[in-house]
């Protein structure tokens, strides 16, 4: 079985060596060669301060490849942007809307800044997860800000144009500012990603970065794109730092030259996704194959399910309770690994389920 090196790896170094880690969201695959080359070339050159606003060519590439319009500002990462958005557009004690289950920093950014989580759970239908638009409408009056995740983490849902249009209408009606985390946008399968800002350009800030699609989590960088007044208000609540020159070089190379690597990687991820979906059906776990991301979300019959699987299967998964209240029987699995690792993990999980 091929195992990635553990040195300096949060994913592979957190647990004992007999544990297979399918938790934190980075990939086990090597970075694209053009990105490696761009980092080396930049490191051999000038490593002084960049322009305070970052690389203008990279900004133009981001707008060109995403189809977004507006101002672009760099930041140290998308999670920083979640905190900045809550600080910029709400005050302590106010409510912030989000869909649950959701990536834990969404909830942390709200709670740690003494705001109130206004949770609007996704609806679990026979076809998969869907936005509860009626629930959103009921909660919208109590907030100024909606934190949105698209493609959705942890469910892997890629929202339809109809859902996005309806959400935009609600946001416009209730004067909501929407901050849309679209970090996983390049990682979609059969259904293409459509930015929320296409339907709500005047009230949407889109958060982007290369970390997930190009496996660059250790070179953190992100960007916010949106109307200049909103971006300027947002920037006042970001750390006053210069963009990382190596991260900008890597992102530019990704957009210019790493397309073939990304297509090949998506094919590997799709095969893993389909294997996981087939396995979930075999063992009887509640699961909808993700339309995007490399994350699988399962409903189990087990309370504190992640702790159970760590103990009984020696497989590390993300605990569902971290993604919102009432999800302790759920787990998130990262399938961006080698088939040998995935097969061994699924075998161990299946054996553990027999003990239930």
TrEMBL record:
Keywords: Aminotransferase, Lyase, Pyridoxal phosphate, Transferase
Gene3D superfamilies xrefs: Aspartate Aminotransferase, domain 1, Type I PLP-dependent aspartate aminotransferase-like (Major domain)
E.C. code: 4.4.1.13
Family: Belongs to the class-II pyridoxal-phosphate-dependent aminotransferase family. MalY/PatB cystathionine beta-lyase subfamily.
Protein name in UniProt: cysteine-S-conjugate beta-lyase
GO molecular function: transaminase activity
Domain Aminotransferase class I/classII large: 22-349
UniProt keyword Transmembrane, yes or no: no
Signal peptide: none
Cofactor(s) of this protein: pyridoxal 5'-phosphate
């Amino acid at each position: 079985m091929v195992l990635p090196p553990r040195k300096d790896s949060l994913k592979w170094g957190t647990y004992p060596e007999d544990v297979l880690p399918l938790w934190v969201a980075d990939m086990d695959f090597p970075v694209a060669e053009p990105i490696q080359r761009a980092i080396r070339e930049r490191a051999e050159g000038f490593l002084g301060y960049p322009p305070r606003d970052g690389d203008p060519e990279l900004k133009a590439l981001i707008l060109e490849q995403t189809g977004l319009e507006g101002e672009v500002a760099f930041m140290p990462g998308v999670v920083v942007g979640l905190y900045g958005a809550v600080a910029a557009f709400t005050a302590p004690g106010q409510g912030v809307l989000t869909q649950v289950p959701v990536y834990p920093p969404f909830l942390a950014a709200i709670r740690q800044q003494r705001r109130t989580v206004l949770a609007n759970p996704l609806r679990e239908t026979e076809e998969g997860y869907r936005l509860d638009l009626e629930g959103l409408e009921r909660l919208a009056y109590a907030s100024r800000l909606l934190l949105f995740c698209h493609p959705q983490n942890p469910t892997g849902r890629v929202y339809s144009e109809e859902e996005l249009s309806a959400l935009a209408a609600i946001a416009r009606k209730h004067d909501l500012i929407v901050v849309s985390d679209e970090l996983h946008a390049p990682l979609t399968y059969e259904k293409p990603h459509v930015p929320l800002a296409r339907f709500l350009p005047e009230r949407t800030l889109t958060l982007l970065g290369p970390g997930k699609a190009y496996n660059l989590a250790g070179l953190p960088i992100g960007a916010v794109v949106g109307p200049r007044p909103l971006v300027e208000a947002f920037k006042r609540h970001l750390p006053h730092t210069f963009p990382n020159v190596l991260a900008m070089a890597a992102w530019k190379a990704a957009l210019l030259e790493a397309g073939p690597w990304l297509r090949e990687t998506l094919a590997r991820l799709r095969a893993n996704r389909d294997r996981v979906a087939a396995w979930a059906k075999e063992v009887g776990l509640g699961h909808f194959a993700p339309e995007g991301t490399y994350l699988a979300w399962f409903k189990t019959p087990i309370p504190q399910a992640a702790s159970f699987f760590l103990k009984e299967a020696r497989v590390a998964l993300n605990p569902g309770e971290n993604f919102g209240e009432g999800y302790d029987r759920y787990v998130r699995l990262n399938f961006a690994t080698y088939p040998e690792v995935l097969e061994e993990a699924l075998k161990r999980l299946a054996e553990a389920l027999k003990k239930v």
